[in-house]
């Protein structure tokens, strides 16, 4: 019994580390957005590059898909995909305003946190929904936990860009 | 015995996931630098912000410290710390050239990879060197694995900025 408890403990510890790092980046994003004005967010992060508003929408739309890859549910805001995932910035498609995007940022990440906190330990070690059983046999590191680690990098990457608006 | 083997396997799987994500970001950095010219790297990533050359040096200097936090050895290039960690960009301190920094990027990350690949599994779950035993008791997630996860975010954050030079 002692070994089994240790295994569970170590698994939980690892999941906790990843969840904490995820929540830390999400929080940093919120603090950053709280400090960026309506005017600033409409600017390009660098000359000729994406505008802040597009990057914020892109983060939300991309993370909103997480439930379909981790298997806990469908995207909540499918209307964001054509604007912020399928299209590049300045596509001419109408975007939600900054206040609405900030509210969606909170809502999408709150939903993710609620789902991830109750995801059973063993599920984290299963393949994600975008790959086959066969591929997973070849590479068992491509599990759901790995998806979250890659989302941490994705979020940090874009926060580094948004930071330039300050 | 079967439980113990499972424990080790699962621990190795966590570590493998984190190492793979780390190496992926390091590789992305190399590919990115290979595509940024001598002229481009001397530019600010956005008006009034850090220049590419400073960010590259900062990444190298920061990662060069990793051995002291993970306990596998001293920094290899202490001369980088005053320029890229203690000072901000445009401090007037002389910087290594881009070709030299690209070589250091390879060298520092090769050294880290060699050290991390042989770090024993149990060491990943120990406290890092910059915290006390007492603090670690309160929060066992602050282990060496957590340090590497936070370095992945740090690297991704700055790669998002360097990407704007292209």
From TrEMBL, chains A, B:
A Pfam family per the record: DinB_2
InterPro entries, per database record: DinB-like (IPR024775), DinB/YfiT-like (IPR034660)
Domain DinB-like intervals: 32-162
Superkingdom, natural source: Bacteria
Protein name: DinB superfamily protein
